[in-house]
Description:
5 domains, ten-stranded mixed sheet, 916 residues, 50 strands, Immunoglobulin-like, alpha+beta, Jelly Rolls, Bac_rhamnosid_N, Ig-like_fold, EC 3.2.1.40, 15 helices, alpha-L-rhamnosidase activity, alpha-L-rhamnosidase, single chain
Amino acid sequence: xxxxxxxxxxxxxxxxxxxxxxxxxxxxxxxxxxxxxxxxxxxxxxxxxxxxxxxxxxxxxxxxxxxxxxxxxxxxxxxxxxxxxxxxxxxxxxxxxxxxxxxxxxxxxxxxxxxxxxxxxxxxxxxxxxxxxxxxxxxxxxxxxxxxxxxxxxxxxxxxxxxxxxxxxxxxxxxxxxxxxxxxxxxxxxxxxxxxxxxxxxxxxxxxxxxxxxxxxxxxxxxxxxxxxxxxxxxxxxxxxxxxxxxxxxxxxxxxxxxxxxxxxxxxxxxxxxxxxxxxxxxxxxxxxxxxxxxxxxxxxxxxxxxxxxxxxxxxxxxxxxxxxxxxxxxxxxxxxxxxxxxxxxxxxxxxxxxxxxxxxxxxxxxxxxxxxxxxxxxxxxxxxxxxxxxxxxxxxxxxxxxxxxxxxxxxxxxxxxxxxxxxxxxxxxxxxxxxxxxxxxxxxxxxxxxxxxxxxxxxxxxxxxxxxxxxxxxxxxxxxxxxxxxxxxxxxxxxxxxxxxxxxxxxxxxxxxxxxxxxxxxxxxxxxxxxxxxxxxxxxxxxxxxxxxxxxxxxxxxxxxxxxxxxxxxxxxxxxxxxxxxxxxxxxxxxxxxxxxxxxxxxxxxxxxxxxxxxxxxxxxxxxxxxxxxxxxxxxxxxxxxxxxxxxxxxxxxxxxxxxxxxxxxxxxxxxxxxxxxxxxxxxxxxxxxxxxxxxxxxxxxxxxxxxxxxxxxxxxxxxxxxxxxxxxxxxxxxxxxxxxxxxxxxxxxxxxxxxxxxxxxxxxxxxxxxxxxxxxxxxxxxxxxxxxxxxxxxxxxxxxxxxxxxxxxxxxxxxxxxxxxxxxxxxxxxxxxxxxxxxxxxxxxxxxxxxxxxxxxxxxxxxxxxxxxxxxxxxxxxxxxxxxxxxxxxxxxxxxxxxxxxxxxxxxxxxxxx
Length: 916
């Protein structure tokens, strides 16, 4: 079994003793960073973390002591029968590796920590818990996969496959009083689990998708409270998900499919007397396909006939004589792994803002927001009344749905009433990307109260907030939040509405970095790196889509290189070194594969997508036809490969592969020389055909010779400011580095102009034209709307990173990954007059709230305990600076016309006068 690592976060609230009063000490918000519910983790050496919260400044951890016990009773008695770390002198409060007794299958562990600080000793009063899952394949061997390998009479396999849900049930008799019980379930493609009629857990669309021939995720639930001595009923519903593919047997050369739904389950029971029992799936389980879910297809929607509901089917008093025995079926083929990332949940609700009748007797419902999830329906009518709901992102001029951009996705839910009392229904196994819904067949005139939108994405915390003096930038931030959250579906997908919804690597090359400020996406992207690793070919190639549901192995640098850049993000933002060590061999294998196959004359000669989605010269064009706007593919791939070599040198050191560093460095030197020899125009101080991207990439990656760097930048800035009149001219590739590079070279004002623009092409142009998410195309409403997803995130580039690092001044020091030290260096002169932003880092909450008024600056900052910050102020006159109303040391450091303060943790009010 692969060894994974777990983060357990223990939030320790610290109140120190002062001369005036004795403050309270408490512990709050115990949680698991890797899992909301740390049951059944797939790990032998978990990493433990905690946060220190304090109401005073300058709190530093000096040591810790961790106690881990096999029972809560032992822990309460300070009997650490699994591990007593002893007092360890260390300031590390993140990623402390468990180093106790070997943990075994289904092992329970309870732990607490004592933190020693420069302000005193803090003991945690609450306790954290985790348990080990099923660590070996052999433990699953006697658990058989069951299912039904036939189609029902109304099922079909075609371009629009239709397959009814499988319902399974098993009555069990527990002879003794239950002490504890856990269910371990693999339900492919999606499942809902019931015990005695009650749904277990609040997750939806579980488990997360994988390439099931490579790895299969199991979920674990503590069901002790759901079971009783005597007869109990286990029930499951199996939906299709990505297992029974949305386009089964359609384009089999492209679309991967896995077969019909199936399940393996263990119920592990421990009785009060200490005896144990395991109930497993076998052919005594009963099954039917005659339930109310007639079809569930992610592209096409869900059909539900309430007349076929089977009341009490998951309880012991149900008559299942017409059900058949489940069949033993072939396992999926992939290795079994505990799911180390949260499932999806209903994360919120959206109430519609209007409903209008159409000439053809239907109704158009407007949610007011392009959202991802589904619609809950409330209705009263006759048995057999059929309500159809078709979902879309926008309307045509006549007020009807615009569906051309959905391609062949039907995006339609159908509900047939059973009749009588009010009925409430929502689908189980699908999701839609939509703002508008056409409702037909409603038995009465519908009102807004008949509908509620359910927002569905991965169960992760929103960690970032941002508000500024520019309304356009604020709306773009909101649009980005909706787009990012909606495309988190157990993997990062490109869009949620049309017949695609694929985890394209190139969409997240830099985007994942920006997203990490808004969401705690650490475990999602750690899982996705495994998806990429599992998709690697034997010779080292990587696909453009992973998991490889589509067989897109085209060999290029910019899309597969995401494997490395996302790993770098996880290291930079979350301090995750173990992930680098785990993934390094496969990343190295791909780098060598590309070098051996496509490095020619020290340049990378293979590119596939170019600077994808460059803004066309006309609002009516989908793709630019002007060669002057297009960047040489060899330049792009060579520059990107050069950048990746620098990251790999860092990774090699982390992975104790120092012997590789020299090779990467030698390649860097050779590529830099060949790159400048071929692409640099010494007479014009430009690269290739002088597109912004052609000059930007060598500037951002450090390829440009030092003596001409400023000249190249001035040419690039001229292209942005004059030739393109202050508008975006980069595609997916260039936009990943545009905003930060402009700011780093002193033109934050030009970056601000791009961010706040309202005319084409710009993010603001989308806002001005009614977008509530981010479009796929800069001109998606005018070129060919049928080609435009109205909920994509790839064009965000480095915009969100720029928001936080360059405008708010919240950046992790690369020398101390994970925000152990924060660089707070906003560009106060870019054009904004205030920014109020926050970010919940792995050390705690970081805040930056600044206001600029004429020649004064007011800046409130919060630095979490056990971290520090380098704070850059826009003055060289230290006498003009006050921190918490106190003057600062007149010998404070001056760097590049800025006063630099190194502040310990705490909350500070900084005032600066006479700024320029």
